[in-house]
Every structure is written in structure tokens, then in C-alpha cells.
Amino acid sequence: MTGFFSRRSSIRLSVDGVHVPCGTPRVPAQEDTLADSASQRRFICGEALGWTREDMAMPENREMPTQPAPLPLREGSRMKRILFHGCPGLILAAVILLGGCEVRNRFLYFPSAERPTARSLAAENMKFWQGTSGDYRGLTADREADAPHGTMVLFHGNGGTALDRGFYLQPLMRRGFRVILAEYPRYGGRPGRVGEKPFVADGRETVRRAYAQYGRPVYLLGESLGAGVAAAVAGQSPVPIAGVILMTPWDTLAAVARTRLPFLPAGLFFTDTYDSTGNLRLFKGKIAVIGAERDDIVPVGHARRLYASLPEGKKRLWVIRGAGHNDWPLYADASLWKEVTDFVKE
């Protein structure tokens, strides 16, 4: 697993809820559902080696030679499969345990030291928000939406940077939002540390500043890892949050680890928890949960379980039919954005 999102050339995103592509009749419902047709990936420790009883038989005299004889090529190849391919999880586990938290974080975070430049910002029609190149909190459109009636603070996934999320600007600005693409510590050239605590603390400060500058209402949008950040910020926000949109979210990070690596303890890989189920338990605003039917990074079942755990009344689920973790923007048409944003603004 190289991360829940790839770099800019192939950004991985996802949403969970049922959405029929534009042009297909559908009847809106409080909870849109769709049968899961995408199988969940499983990793298997070991492989069928095809050994025979003769392969494992002891010599007839039952005596072990003082110097082991070289293995025939066929048996030597099998031994290599045992050591290097048979149980890769055990080798990986040993590396992680010896490396500690820093190694574990490398499975989840992919920071970038590259700062946005004047040229790259101009190419994306963006500008710095709350600062300049070496000291900024996020990016925003160089031209604001006409008479915006709310601020959407967006937390991106673990790959790429805020500069890579320009495709959010127009759909959300057309719906009347001012959009702030929040940047994480250690991403986009920002100083700081990676991890759940610094990300959530930094996100809370970004939301506080957005509220101080623009007032209410303030909404949050998070994609993949960013959905975990958004859920945590919403659960302990210093200012009122009107609604939250969670794109391809998980219920807990540990649950995703168990899905992808069921033969290893979830805590072995991540010290951070991103318990969205727990973080949103007391949140009083609207929550839109959006998943991708064919998501093979954070399988859509995690979004469904998150949705099921939320308090009744102010939640709604969408699943984008046929979409995966990487390509859901190709399936997210204007009607989806309208439904989702209308719901959180109600």
C-alpha cells in the first residue's frame, strides 16, 4: 500500500453514498444504498509450495550430517519462497517493531517539502491564505465566489498537497461556498510534524481563523485521511461547525488496517487512531458520508459502518456507483454536488 492517495498525477479520492451518474433517473432517499459488488482485497501469508512426503523425508539412517549438503535447485527455490515470499508479513512486522513509530508513520503519511510557487499558484488560479510561501495555512481561489454564503474548509488526503486539490474549487464555488484548501504541517513546505495530534491541532487553528475572518457558517470537507482529520476537528472544534462532508472515509483507521492486513495486529502499523466513529458521536451538525462503490483503498464498507454509527436524524449516505478511490471525480457530476451541499446547508 503506497498510501490512500497517490501523487498529483493520480490523486486518490473517494466518497460513500449511492449516486447514479447524471442522466439516470433516481428517487432521492434519506439513505441511498447499493449492494457492494467490489470484493475486498486480502493478503495471504504463504503459498502452496507443492511439497511431497518424499521432499520432507529424513534419511533412512536417521542421522543428521555434520555439514548440511547443498539443496538441489528445486528445493533451494522452495526455501527462498519460504524465507522471502512465504511470510512477508512477518518480515514486515519485524521491521516495523524495530523501527518504532517513525517507521509506522511512513505507511500513512507522505509529506512534501515542495512549496507552491507564484507560477504554480497562477496555473491553478489559487493564492495563499493566511500567510505567504514559507508560512501559510492553506490555499484559496484567487477570485472568490460571488456573495459566498459559507466557508468550506477542506482537508485533503495523505498524498499530494493542497495545490493538487484545485478540482474542488469550481464545484463548491458554484454552490456558493468560499473554499479554503487547508495544508498540513510538513506538507507543501510547511513546518511542523506529521501525525494525528499535530494535524488535528493545526486543523482546529485553521478553522478558528476562518471563523474569525469570515464568520459563520463554517463547513468541513475531508477526503480519505482528511475525513479522519475533519471528523476529529468537528468533534472538538473551537467554533461552531454547521456541517461536515466526508469523502471515502473510514470508521476507524484500525478497522482499515484489519481489512487490508488481517493476519497482523492493527496497532502494529499505526500509532494514530483517527477514530471517526468516536469523534463524531456528539457532533450536532449535518454529516454527509460519501463512498465509492469500487474503492480498493478504503473499502466502501467502512463508510457504511461509519454512517450506521452516527446519531439518527442529521446524516445521509451516498455511494458513487462504479467509482474507485482514485477516479471518483470522474463520476461526481453537478447533481451529486448539489445534493450533498444542499443537504449540509439545510
In short:
The protein is of the alpha/beta class.
Walk me through this protein's architecture.
This protein has one domain: Rossmann fold. The protein has a 9-stranded mixed β-sheet with strand order 1-9-8-7-6-4-5-3-2, with helices on both faces. 31% of the residues lie in helices and 13% in strands. With 346 residues, the protein is of the alpha/beta class. It starts with 16 loop residues before the first strand and ends with a helix. It is built from 11 helices and 9 strands. Helix 6 crosses helix 7.
Topology summary:
Layout: E1 17-19, H1 73-86, H2 88-99, H3 101-105, H4 118-123, E2 126-129, E3 138-141, E4 151-155, H5 169-174, E5 178-182, H6 196-214, E6 218-223, H7 225-235, E7 243-247, H8 253-260, H9 276-279, E8 286-292, H10 300-309, E9 315-320, H11 334-345
Parallel strand pairs: 1-9, 4-5, 4-6, 6-7, 7-8, 8-9
Antiparallel strand pairs: 2-3, 3-5
Helix pairs in contact: 6-7
